[in-house]
Recover the amino acids of this structure.
DNA sequence: TGCTGGTGTCATACA
DNA sequence: CCTGTATGACACCAG
């Protein structure tokens, strides 16, 4: 996580620097600070990664700003993610729109950096976690304090690259100043150091500044907006072309943290077209799915191309999804620092859009079981529960849909995404047969948690563990396929529910299913086992995550305590040294004093036999050295021991 | 071939 | 008593 964070921050900083050179200001510090927050929380303790958060609820909100009460910290998290999306969009075809947004931010930030403390306050609050290293990397853009004057310019100055860079610096400078107010001792040093570096780096730019122009902010915000609108529309095309040229160079430099989405997108699109062409006649909604996945791929790339989350996207419990996202395992690990929650959300979106397709596959696969299904109603996967044994397919469908709506994201742990190996996806991709649509159906039978979403095929049957007997026909059909054992069992027992449903439906509903569907005792037992195993699987994953977190936390504590020990040892040595010096001084002073004193017979006091004692009242008294006392005490002890022995 | 990490599962305790 | 959760232990698999 730390490495990923480092890569990610460096990539963003590089992008920021380059964008600053061409006049686009990127508020990277506010992003980074807000972005790091959930990461730190993940490292330090319970977080969204372990909270059963219904991230699917976020899909109806704007960038997830309305989050589950369990995860209030995700507010900032999604806000930062939105900023990241905007930054990344600079390299995509949506660039002009996003650039316009950045121009808005540029001017407003410039004004506020000059004029208002509000931005500074906000930024300082957001950048509370900003590392000094990040600040140091941005030093190349920094201007000295006088650089504020450069920013006290008219909008035409704001178009200059140097001025924008100066504004970026100024914002950070304001941050430092605010921090100084809050923590003067600790941060003043930092601010001074960075200021010195900035002065040394940008002496030439400082010549442009005029201290006399340092004036309080007086420009109206509306005026700035009008200026902004007047310049952004006209200069947007130029900036667009210019930035596009620069970004073409950036593609090779910026780490894959930002550009990995390209590979993901390409891979997905390629596969989407290839697979879609093969299934065109059997899946009328393929085009829709493809569109959906292209959108999702874009969204995922905006979030982060972490391997785990790429798998999370790719591992939707549908065969088509798995095939569309086959080559995601090559993604860089640096993206692992981003939110798995985003992919949970994406998974939810994908689940919605794929239900229709899945139902088509279900019908073609198992008509004897699904003959009563209402296939043209866009039923979700769970509508398969409304099979021949279902008393009411429509009712069951609605209720089952509620599983997905309420439980898919609510159950499980988003942090599991990063632990899901991509091999499952690759294996599935290589073994998938576009002709056998039933496989696409049964690959959907995975748990609703992200872990299960991501493992439509990775839950390989454990050969060593006891297997419930399967018929030869069933075994031959599925033994080499990547279905979980429970999925195989469920199908062997003709249970019209997916493991996902069984695990995630509420217990009341589960009991209704057990009672109202006329299941045999074996089926009931299997249903209960599947549910228990699914629940326990999630619990085990959660438990392991917690264990890893605990280990990480303990390791960090060990490091902290070791550092503290080192400090204390140094302090101890220093104290001992000081005490020794003071002792020597006292001895010397005692000798001097005693040498000037005389006893009753007029002879000087022997420093070996007398000492000076300072009383509590400040009086200094000459006392004889109590050497015999030590010997006496020792003798007393010896005597006591002898007495004890005698007794 | 042994090691290691990840994962699923079972047994058990607890709420 | 039932259900869900947490966790240790075990086995399997893949790298």
């Amino acid at each position: 996580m730390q490495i990923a964070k480092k890569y990610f921050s460096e990539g963003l900083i590089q992008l920021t620097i380059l964008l600053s050179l061409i006049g686009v200001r990127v508020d990277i510090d506010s992003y980074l600070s807000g972005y790091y927050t959930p990461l730190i929380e993940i490292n330090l303790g319970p977080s969204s990664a372990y909270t059963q958060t219904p991230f699917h609820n976020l899909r109806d909100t704007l960038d997830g700003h309305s989050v589950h009460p369990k995860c209030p910290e995700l507010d900032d998290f999604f806000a930062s993610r939105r900023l990241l999306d905007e930054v990344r969009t600079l390299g995509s075809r949506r660039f002009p729109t996003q650039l316009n947004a950045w121009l808005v931010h540029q001017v407003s930030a410039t004004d506020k950096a000059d004029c208002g403390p509000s931005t500074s306050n906000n930024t300082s609050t957001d950048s509370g976690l900003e590392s000094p290293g990040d600040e140091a990397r941005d030093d190349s853009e920094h201007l000295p304090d006088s650089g504020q004057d450069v920013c006290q310019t008219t909008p035409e100055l704001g178009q200059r690259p140097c001025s924008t860079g100066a504004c970026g610096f100024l914002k950070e400078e304001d941050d430092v100043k605010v921090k100084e107010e809050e923590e003067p001792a600790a941060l003043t040093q930092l601010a001074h150091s960075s200021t010195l570096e900035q002065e040394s780096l940008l002496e030439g730019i400082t010549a442009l500044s005029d201290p006399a122009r340092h004036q309080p902010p007086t420009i109206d915000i509306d005026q700035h907006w009008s200026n902004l609108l007047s310049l952004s529309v006209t200069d947007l095309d130029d900036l667009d072309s210019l930035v596009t040229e620069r970004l073409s160079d950036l593609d090779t430099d910026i780490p894959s943290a930002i550009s990995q989405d390209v590979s993901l997108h390409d891979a997905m699109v390629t596969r989407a077209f290839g697979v879609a062409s093969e299934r065109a006649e059997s899946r009328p909604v393929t085009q829709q799915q493809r569109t959906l996945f292209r959108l999702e791929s874009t969204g995922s790339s905006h979030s982060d191309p972490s391997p785990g989350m790429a798998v999370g996207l790719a591992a939707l419990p549908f065969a088509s999804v798995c095939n569309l996202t086959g080559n995601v395992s090559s993604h860089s690990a640096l993206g692992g620092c981003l939110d798995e929650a985003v992919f949970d959300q994406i998974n939810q979106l994908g689940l919605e859009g794929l239900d229709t397709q899945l139902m088509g596959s279900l019908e073609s696969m198992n008509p004897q079981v699904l003959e009563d299904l209402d296939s043209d109603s866009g039923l979700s996967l769970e509508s398969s529960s409304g099979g021949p044994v279902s008393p009411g397919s429509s009712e069951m469908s609605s209720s089952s849909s509620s599983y997905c709506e309420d439980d898919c994201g609510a159950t499980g742990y988003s942090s599991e995404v990063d632990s899901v190996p991509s091999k499952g996806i690759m294996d599935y991709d290589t073994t998938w047969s576009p002709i056998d649509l039933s496989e696409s159906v049964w690959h959907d039978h995975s748990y609703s948690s992200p872990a299960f979403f991501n493992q439509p095929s990775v839950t390989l049957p454990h050969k060593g563990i006891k297997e419930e007997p399967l018929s030869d026909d069933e075994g031959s059909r599925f033994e080499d396929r990547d279905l979980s054992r429970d999925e195989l069992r469920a199908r062997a027992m003709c249970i019209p529910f997916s493991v996902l449903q069984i695990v995630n439906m509420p217990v009341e509903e589960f009991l209704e299913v057990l009672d109202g569907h006329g299941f045999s005792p074996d089926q009931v037992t299997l249903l209960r086992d599947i549910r228990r195993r699914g629940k326990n699987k999630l619990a085990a994953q959660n438990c392991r995550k917690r264990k890893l977190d605990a280990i990480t936390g303990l390791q960090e504590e060990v490091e902290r305590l070791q550092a503290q020990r080192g400090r204390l040892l140094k302090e101890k040595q220093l104290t001992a040294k000081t005490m020794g010096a003071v002792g020597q001084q006292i001895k010397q002073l005692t000798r001097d004093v005693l040498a000037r004193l005389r006893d009753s017979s007029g002879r000087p006091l022997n420093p070996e036999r007398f000492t000076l004692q300072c009383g509590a009242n400040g009086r200094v008294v000459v006392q004889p050295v109590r050497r015999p006392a030590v010997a006496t005490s020792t003798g007393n002890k010896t005597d006591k021991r002898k007495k004890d022995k005698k007794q």
